[in-house]
Write a structure and sequence with these properties.
The chain has 189 residues and is of the alpha+beta class. Helix content is 26%, strand content 30%.
Length: 189
């Protein structure tokens, strides 16, 4: 029986590895990229206007953003970040506290959640973060909360719309996606 458990465990590890590798997204021409950031919240969280947002910002301040609003509207906008906003984002991403965050933080979602993901090119390779605040049990740490706040309150100026085909890779690449399992009720009518 024990031999089967080891074989089963090895098979599970291989299958999960293949799944993570298959979900990895290739981003072409990232040499000018400052960061790709995303924030997602379940509809119950604080009733905010922005439910999901992804942004790719280049080092010179050009951005591409996709936002799903609570009204169901999907926005795809591009333009240039103001110098003040760009400097603020650079400071937040370069802070020692932000760089020291662990790459992944998960949890079990029972009702509502907020998630954050980032892909930031660094001299020594890309920093990738995935953070889940499930049911408010694990609030974002302060350095990450500041980036999330910047992202949620970013208002594009002098914006233009774009088609998905122009910039399909706005969101950060991520391994396994965080999902909310359905929970069956164990009760009688």
């Amino acid at each position: 029986m024990r031999r089967y458990a080891k074989s089963y465990l090895a098979a599970v590890v291989v299958l999960i590895s293949i799944g993570m590798w298959a979900q990895e997204v290739y981003h072409a021409d990232d040499t000018d990229l400052l960061a790709r950031l995303s924030y997602d919240s379940s509809p119950v969280v604080h009733g905010e206007d922005v439910r999901q947002v992804c942004i790719a910002v280049s080092r010179d301040g050009e951005y591409r953003i996709t936002r799903s609003l609570s009204t169901g509207e999907m926005q795809r906008l591009k333009g240039k970040v103001t110098q003040e906003q760009l400097q603020q984002l650079r400071r937040l991403l370069k802070s020692a506290e932000f760089k020291a965050l662990p790459a992944r933080h998960g949890g079990l979602i029972r009702q509502d959640s907020e998630s954050f993901a980032a892909e930031i090119p660094r001299k020594d390779g890309a920093q990738r973060l995935q953070w889940l605040n499930a049911d408010g049990d694990s609030p974002f740490p302060a350095p990450l909360a500041k980036v999330v706040d910047w992202l949620k309150h970013f208002e594009p100026k002098d914006r233009k719309t774009y088609d998905y085909a122009e910039y399909p890779d706005v969101c950060p690449s991520a391994g396994l996606r965080l999902i909310q399992p359905s929970v069956a009720r164990n009760g009688r009518p």
